[in-house]
Amino acid sequence: MSPSPSESTVTVGNIALSFHRAVAAVTRRVLEAHGHRVKSAEAPHEQLFRLQEEGSIDVLVSAWLPSSHDTYLSRYSDQVQVLTPHYHPYCVWAVPPHVSDEEVQEVADLARPEIAARMTTAVDGINAGAGISRFSARMVREYGLDRLGYTFTPGSESGFVSRVERGIAAQEWFVIPLWRPQYLNRLYELRPLREPKGLLGSMDDASPVVRRDALDRIHPDALARLDSLRLGNEGVEEVDVLINVDGLTPLQAADRYLADHGLGLLG
To answer: What is the fold of 90-192?
Structure first.
Protein backbone atom coordinates (compact mmCIF):
# COMPACT_ATOMS: atom_id res chain seq x y z
CA MET A 1 0.00 0.00 0.00
CA SER A 2 1.51 3.33 -1.07
CA PRO A 3 1.77 6.18 1.45
CA SER A 4 -0.83 8.92 1.45
CA PRO A 5 0.20 12.39 0.21
CA SER A 6 0.54 13.58 3.80
CA GLU A 7 2.99 10.76 4.65
CA SER A 8 5.23 10.54 1.60
CA THR A 9 8.85 11.68 1.32
CA VAL A 10 9.51 14.70 -0.87
CA THR A 11 12.99 15.68 -2.05
CA VAL A 12 13.62 19.42 -2.16
CA GLY A 13 16.65 20.59 -4.12
CA ASN A 14 18.29 23.98 -4.05
CA ILE A 15 21.19 25.70 -5.78
CA ALA A 16 24.28 25.73 -3.57
CA LEU A 17 24.09 29.37 -2.47
CA SER A 18 22.98 30.71 0.90
CA PHE A 19 19.86 32.58 -0.19
CA HIS A 20 18.66 29.51 -2.10
CA ARG A 21 19.16 27.52 1.12
CA ALA A 22 17.00 30.13 2.85
CA VAL A 23 14.09 29.63 0.46
CA ALA A 24 14.52 25.85 0.52
CA ALA A 25 14.28 25.89 4.32
CA VAL A 26 10.97 27.76 4.20
CA THR A 27 9.76 25.32 1.53
CA ARG A 28 10.76 22.40 3.74
CA ARG A 29 8.75 23.81 6.66
CA VAL A 30 5.67 24.15 4.44
CA LEU A 31 5.91 20.51 3.38
CA GLU A 32 6.59 19.28 6.92
CA ALA A 33 3.61 21.22 8.23
CA HIS A 34 1.45 19.04 5.98
CA GLY A 35 2.96 15.77 7.18
CA HIS A 36 5.68 15.16 4.63
CA ARG A 37 9.09 13.77 5.34
CA VAL A 38 11.58 15.96 3.46
CA LYS A 39 14.94 15.03 2.01
CA SER A 40 17.29 17.81 0.93
CA ALA A 41 19.65 17.99 -2.03
CA GLU A 42 22.03 20.73 -3.10
CA ALA A 43 24.14 21.25 -6.22
CA PRO A 44 25.52 23.98 -8.49
CA HIS A 45 23.11 25.56 -10.95
CA GLU A 46 23.18 23.36 -14.05
CA GLN A 47 23.77 20.16 -12.08
CA LEU A 48 20.71 20.79 -9.91
CA PHE A 49 18.43 21.14 -12.93
CA ARG A 50 19.97 17.98 -14.38
CA LEU A 51 19.14 16.12 -11.16
CA GLN A 52 15.51 17.19 -11.41
CA GLU A 53 15.41 16.25 -15.08
CA GLU A 54 16.66 12.78 -14.11
CA GLY A 55 13.96 12.45 -11.43
CA SER A 56 16.11 12.75 -8.31
CA ILE A 57 14.49 16.00 -7.14
CA ASP A 58 10.75 16.51 -6.69
CA VAL A 59 10.71 20.25 -5.88
CA LEU A 60 13.43 22.58 -7.16
CA VAL A 61 13.80 25.89 -5.32
CA SER A 62 14.01 28.14 -7.24
CA ALA A 63 14.17 28.61 -11.02
CA TRP A 64 14.86 32.19 -12.13
CA LEU A 65 12.84 32.66 -15.29
CA PRO A 66 13.23 33.65 -18.03
CA SER A 67 16.70 35.21 -17.96
CA SER A 68 18.94 33.14 -15.72
CA HIS A 69 17.76 29.52 -15.70
CA ASP A 70 15.49 28.95 -18.70
CA THR A 71 18.47 27.54 -20.60
CA TYR A 72 18.51 24.69 -18.05
CA LEU A 73 14.78 24.20 -17.48
CA SER A 74 13.79 24.27 -21.16
CA ARG A 75 15.32 20.81 -21.68
CA TYR A 76 12.53 19.19 -19.64
CA SER A 77 9.85 21.85 -19.15
CA ASP A 78 7.14 19.44 -20.28
CA GLN A 79 7.88 17.24 -17.23
CA VAL A 80 7.32 19.90 -14.56
CA GLN A 81 4.86 22.41 -13.18
CA VAL A 82 6.19 25.89 -12.45
CA LEU A 83 4.46 27.48 -9.46
CA THR A 84 3.79 31.15 -8.78
CA PRO A 85 6.98 33.15 -8.01
CA HIS A 86 8.13 33.50 -4.41
CA TYR A 87 10.24 36.57 -5.23
CA HIS A 88 11.54 38.62 -8.17
CA PRO A 89 15.34 38.60 -8.41
CA TYR A 90 17.55 40.64 -10.68
CA CYS A 91 21.26 40.96 -11.43
CA VAL A 92 23.46 44.05 -11.15
CA TRP A 93 27.04 45.18 -11.13
CA ALA A 94 27.63 47.11 -7.93
CA VAL A 95 30.32 49.19 -6.26
CA PRO A 96 30.93 49.82 -2.55
CA PRO A 97 29.58 53.06 -1.06
CA HIS A 98 33.01 54.69 -0.86
CA VAL A 99 33.27 54.74 -4.68
CA SER A 100 32.22 58.22 -5.84
CA ASP A 101 28.64 58.21 -7.12
CA GLU A 102 29.45 61.29 -9.19
CA GLU A 103 32.33 59.62 -11.03
CA VAL A 104 30.93 56.09 -11.34
CA GLN A 105 27.21 55.98 -12.14
CA GLU A 106 26.97 53.31 -14.83
CA VAL A 107 28.97 50.39 -16.18
CA ALA A 108 30.32 52.44 -19.09
CA ASP A 109 32.06 54.74 -16.59
CA LEU A 110 34.38 51.84 -15.71
CA ALA A 111 35.91 52.20 -19.19
CA ARG A 112 36.99 55.81 -18.66
CA PRO A 113 40.79 55.78 -18.37
CA GLU A 114 40.89 57.81 -15.16
CA ILE A 115 38.37 55.41 -13.52
CA ALA A 116 40.07 52.25 -14.82
CA ALA A 117 43.30 53.55 -13.30
CA ARG A 118 41.68 53.60 -9.85
CA MET A 119 39.60 50.44 -10.09
CA THR A 120 40.74 46.93 -9.33
CA THR A 121 40.28 45.42 -12.78
CA ALA A 122 39.92 41.82 -11.58
CA VAL A 123 36.15 41.20 -11.36
CA ASP A 124 35.34 38.14 -9.24
CA GLY A 125 32.07 36.21 -9.29
CA ILE A 126 30.35 33.03 -8.19
CA ASN A 127 30.29 29.73 -10.06
CA ALA A 128 30.34 29.71 -13.85
CA GLY A 129 26.83 28.23 -14.22
CA ALA A 130 25.09 31.19 -12.58
CA GLY A 131 23.25 33.61 -14.81
CA ILE A 132 25.16 36.54 -13.30
CA SER A 133 28.45 34.83 -14.27
CA ARG A 134 27.39 34.22 -17.86
CA PHE A 135 26.14 37.79 -18.12
CA SER A 136 29.28 39.26 -16.53
CA ALA A 137 31.69 37.51 -18.90
CA ARG A 138 29.76 39.06 -21.77
CA MET A 139 29.72 42.48 -20.06
CA VAL A 140 33.53 42.63 -19.99
CA ARG A 141 33.59 42.12 -23.76
CA GLU A 142 30.59 44.21 -24.79
CA TYR A 143 31.64 47.28 -22.82
CA GLY A 144 35.24 47.01 -24.04
CA LEU A 145 36.49 46.56 -20.50
CA ASP A 146 38.85 43.80 -21.57
CA ARG A 147 40.82 46.34 -23.59
CA LEU A 148 41.52 48.19 -20.34
CA GLY A 149 42.69 45.09 -18.48
CA TYR A 150 39.43 44.06 -16.80
CA THR A 151 38.89 40.34 -16.40
CA PHE A 152 35.99 38.30 -15.05
CA THR A 153 36.74 35.14 -13.07
CA PRO A 154 34.01 32.88 -11.62
CA GLY A 155 34.65 31.30 -8.24
CA SER A 156 33.10 29.98 -5.04
CA GLU A 157 30.50 31.67 -2.86
CA SER A 158 32.95 31.89 0.05
CA GLY A 159 35.61 33.45 -2.19
CA PHE A 160 33.07 35.92 -3.53
CA VAL A 161 32.05 37.00 -0.01
CA SER A 162 35.68 37.27 1.09
CA ARG A 163 36.44 39.43 -1.91
CA VAL A 164 33.70 41.91 -0.94
CA GLU A 165 34.76 41.95 2.72
CA ARG A 166 38.41 42.49 1.79
CA GLY A 167 37.60 45.32 -0.62
CA ILE A 168 35.33 47.07 1.88
CA ALA A 169 37.94 46.86 4.64
CA ALA A 170 40.66 48.27 2.37
CA GLN A 171 38.40 51.03 0.96
CA GLU A 172 39.27 49.61 -2.45
CA TRP A 173 37.60 50.75 -5.64
CA PHE A 174 36.16 47.57 -7.10
CA VAL A 175 33.08 46.32 -8.91
CA ILE A 176 31.23 43.15 -7.98
CA PRO A 177 28.64 41.13 -9.95
CA LEU A 178 25.71 40.96 -7.55
CA TRP A 179 22.02 40.24 -7.38
CA ARG A 180 19.00 40.76 -5.21
CA PRO A 181 18.12 39.05 -2.97
CA GLN A 182 21.51 38.64 -1.27
CA TYR A 183 22.45 39.56 2.28
CA LEU A 184 25.54 41.55 1.24
CA ASN A 185 23.21 44.22 -0.12
CA ARG A 186 21.97 44.94 3.40
CA LEU A 187 25.29 44.51 5.13
CA TYR A 188 27.43 46.81 2.99
CA GLU A 189 24.99 49.09 1.11
CA LEU A 190 26.51 48.14 -2.24
CA ARG A 191 25.38 50.55 -4.97
CA PRO A 192 24.08 49.20 -8.29
CA LEU A 193 25.41 50.76 -11.49
CA ARG A 194 23.12 51.58 -14.38
CA GLU A 195 23.45 49.11 -17.23
CA PRO A 196 21.52 50.50 -20.23
CA LYS A 197 22.53 47.74 -22.67
CA GLY A 198 20.42 45.20 -20.76
CA LEU A 199 23.15 42.57 -20.70
CA LEU A 200 22.31 41.52 -17.14
CA GLY A 201 18.92 40.12 -18.09
CA SER A 202 15.52 41.17 -16.88
CA MET A 203 13.88 40.98 -13.49
CA ASP A 204 13.11 37.27 -13.18
CA ASP A 205 10.35 35.25 -11.57
CA ALA A 206 11.85 32.96 -8.90
CA SER A 207 9.49 29.99 -8.83
CA PRO A 208 9.40 26.53 -7.29
CA VAL A 209 9.45 23.82 -9.96
CA VAL A 210 7.61 20.56 -9.21
CA ARG A 211 7.95 17.37 -11.22
CA ARG A 212 4.57 16.31 -12.58
CA ASP A 213 5.15 12.72 -11.49
CA ALA A 214 5.49 13.98 -7.90
CA LEU A 215 2.24 15.95 -7.83
CA ASP A 216 0.13 13.04 -6.58
CA ARG A 217 2.60 12.46 -3.71
CA ILE A 218 2.42 16.03 -2.40
CA HIS A 219 -0.52 17.07 -0.23
CA PRO A 220 -2.79 19.46 -2.19
CA ASP A 221 -2.77 21.93 0.70
CA ALA A 222 1.03 21.95 0.71
CA LEU A 223 1.07 22.66 -3.01
CA ALA A 224 -1.49 25.41 -2.55
CA ARG A 225 0.59 27.00 0.22
CA LEU A 226 3.77 26.83 -1.85
CA ASP A 227 1.91 28.38 -4.75
CA SER A 228 0.63 31.26 -2.61
CA LEU A 229 3.84 31.95 -0.66
CA ARG A 230 5.17 35.47 -1.28
CA LEU A 231 8.55 36.04 0.32
CA GLY A 232 9.66 38.92 -1.88
CA ASN A 233 13.28 39.99 -2.23
CA GLU A 234 13.13 41.62 1.20
CA GLY A 235 11.92 38.42 2.87
CA VAL A 236 14.59 36.27 1.26
CA GLU A 237 17.29 38.75 2.28
CA GLU A 238 15.90 38.77 5.83
CA VAL A 239 16.31 34.99 6.10
CA ASP A 240 19.72 35.21 4.41
CA VAL A 241 20.88 37.75 7.02
CA LEU A 242 19.70 35.45 9.83
CA ILE A 243 21.89 32.70 8.37
CA ASN A 244 25.02 34.63 7.44
CA VAL A 245 25.10 37.42 10.02
CA ASP A 246 23.22 36.01 13.01
CA GLY A 247 24.64 32.50 12.58
CA LEU A 248 21.38 30.55 12.48
CA THR A 249 21.01 27.36 10.49
CA PRO A 250 18.73 27.67 7.44
CA LEU A 251 15.90 25.86 9.27
CA GLN A 252 16.32 27.99 12.38
CA ALA A 253 16.27 31.09 10.19
CA ALA A 254 13.12 29.90 8.43
CA ASP A 255 11.43 29.29 11.78
CA ARG A 256 12.42 32.75 13.04
CA TYR A 257 11.18 34.43 9.87
CA LEU A 258 7.86 32.58 9.90
CA ALA A 259 7.33 33.36 13.58
CA ASP A 260 8.31 37.03 13.26
CA HIS A 261 5.87 37.53 10.40
CA GLY A 262 3.02 35.53 11.87
CA LEU A 263 3.01 33.14 8.93
CA GLY A 264 1.27 30.08 10.29
CA LEU A 265 1.77 27.14 7.95
CA LEU A 266 -1.42 25.23 8.70
CA GLY A 267 -4.93 26.30 8.03
So the answer is: D-Maltodextrin-Binding Protein; domain 2 (3.40.190)
